[in-house]
Amino acid sequence: MKKYIKPIYVLVILILTSCSEDDYSDVSVDDDQAISTIDYPDLSLPATPFNYANINLPDSFLNNDVQNEDNTPNNNPITDNGATLGRVLFYDKKLSLNNTISCASCHIQENGFSDPNQFSLGFEGGLTGRNSMGLSNARFYENGRFFWDERAATLEDQTLMPIQDLVEMGMTLEELETKLAQEGYYTILFENAFGDESITSERIAFAISQFIRSMVSFESKFDEGLDQAQNSNNNFPNFTASENRGKQLFMSNQTRCFDCHATVAFVGDNARNIGLDVVISDPGIGGITNNNNDLGEFKVPSLRNIGLTAP
């Protein structure tokens, strides 16, 4: 099933293969998708996993420019069963110490998998230090690093950090492994995904990363226009004159927007300094590297769904 939100800006569209809009209070899958289900203890899932691994992407996402940005590691390709497990973990509040916060609590689908609030609430009511980043097209960030300050070397590393954060979810990885092993459905899901029932933090990271990398946005008004024009430099037949002028400026040397938000995924290839070091105290990547040349540099996110990810 594909659900998408009508674009409210030329580059804005949410398309996520096989994910419901529910922010599950515990963990579940919408019944309208489960025509034929497997009954796990306390969980119902479709008998046939959704297609996460082989999403039918348009040609513009299959060219070398975009494929070269794909940060999927060789040891963790997307599989249908792996991403299914990742989806269940993503919506499960048991990943927090007091069962109040899930990944989806701060990365909300209807908000482009971000948080409309400036800061997100943690498991004990504390606030995060930065806004929650939108997750669509996360797989197309070339250097593969994550968080605004890029302190996580890979998406797999990133997925475990909020779980252990004392503000966000407050768990240790050992506590999490023990906690999940007590749920019957997880032993089945881990066996389906990895071949045996062993629940480890590495497998948790792999599964959540597979689910996040399956979040690919590719059915916007821009994509429809590119399909018709066959070249992003040409005017798009489905665009207004103003929209075509905006596209021209976006890709021009006058604005150089395309330098940072490259390819049709509109994701950056590296961190950039856009002047925030002048007006705020957040050092960005410089606070991680202790290199003055990195002060004020932050990860460049995708512009897709930008109309949904306020502020």
| CATH topology grouping | Cytochrome Bc1 Complex, Chain D, domain 2
CATH class: Mainly Alpha
Structural class: mainly alpha
Q: Can you identify the CATH superfamily?
A: Cytochrome c-like domain
Note the beta-strand portion: 5-15%
Q: How many strand units?
A: 6
Mean pLDDT: 87
Shape: globular
How many domain modules?
A: 1
Kindly report the spatial arrangement of strands forming the biggest sheet. Answer: 1-2
Main β sheet profile: 2 strands, antiparallel
> How many helices?
12
Helices and strands, in order, run as: EEEEHHHHHHHHHHEHHE
Radius of gyration: 20 Å
- Which parts are unreliable, with pLDDT below 50 for 5 consecutive residues or more? 1-37
The N- to C-terminal Cα distance equals 29 Å
The CATH architecture assignment turns out to be Orthogonal Bundle
Helix content: 25-40%
Describe the model.
With 311 residues, the protein is mostly helical. The chain has a single domain (1-311), classed as Cytochrome Bc1 Complex, Chain D, domain 2, CATH 1.10.760.10. 30% of the residues lie in helices and 6% in strands. It has 12 helices and 6 strands. The chain has helices at residues 64-67, 80-90, 103-106, 155-164, 173-181, 184-194, 201-213, 221-229, 241-250, 257-260, 276-279, 286-289, and strands at 2-5, 14-17, 37-40, 43-46, 272-273, 297-298. It has a two-stranded antiparallel sheet. It has a two-stranded antiparallel ribbon with strand order 3-4. It has a two-stranded antiparallel sheet with strand order 5-6. β1 (2-5) and β2 (14-17) form a beta hairpin. The protein is globular and about 60 Å long. The chain starts with a strand and ends in a 13-residue tail after the last strand.
